[in-house]
Design goal:
The protein is an all-alpha fold. The chain has 6 helices and no strands. The N and C termini lie far apart (about 50 Å).
Length: about 140
């Protein structure tokens, strides 16, 4: 799994940053929702996995709500810092199944870690959106 994770990160770092802050916010809330859904699905089979999914869902929702981007409610954290938190969460999710001995339920956390890592790698945290870069490029061509 480490090889797959390394491959996803290397590939996403080389690809263009196509995810805007608004799209990133939508993905964050969808990811949090999937953690909460997994809590219900794991509850009767693996209580440890269910509690881990609930904790991850709460963490993902909290970070999304505190970020200064479209969809953030309290705007305490700037968007580049949010990217660093996402990278840390992706790495933590990769190790969580082994750390908590989740067994067969561990695939979900590994998949979520890969998904968050890929989303983070493809997000433009630099501030200038695709539209703004396109406008500035057109302005340079005119001048």
């Amino acid at each position: 799994m480490a090889l797959l994770d390394t491959s996803v990160r290397a590939l996403s770092n080389r690809l263009p940053k196509v995810i805007t802050p608004k799209t990133h916010a939508i993905i964050d809330y969808a990811t949090a929702g999937s953690f909460f859904l997994a809590t219900g699905l794991f509850w009767n089979r693996n209580r440890r996995a269910a509690l881990a999914a609930m904790a991850c869902g709460i963490a993902e929702t909290t970070v999304a709500m505190l970020t200064d981007y479209p969809g953030g409610l309290f705007r305490v954290m700037d968007f580049p810092t949010h990217g660093k938190v996402d990278a840390g969460m992706a790495a933590g999710l990769e190790t969580l199944p082994k750390f908590l001995n989740l067994g067969a339920s561990g695939w979900f956390f590994r998949a979520q870690g890969l998904s968050i890592g890929a989303t983070t790698g493809l997000t433009d945290f630099g501030g200038a959106s695709q539209e703004e870069r396109g406008r500035s490029r057109r302005m340079r061509n005119i001048a």
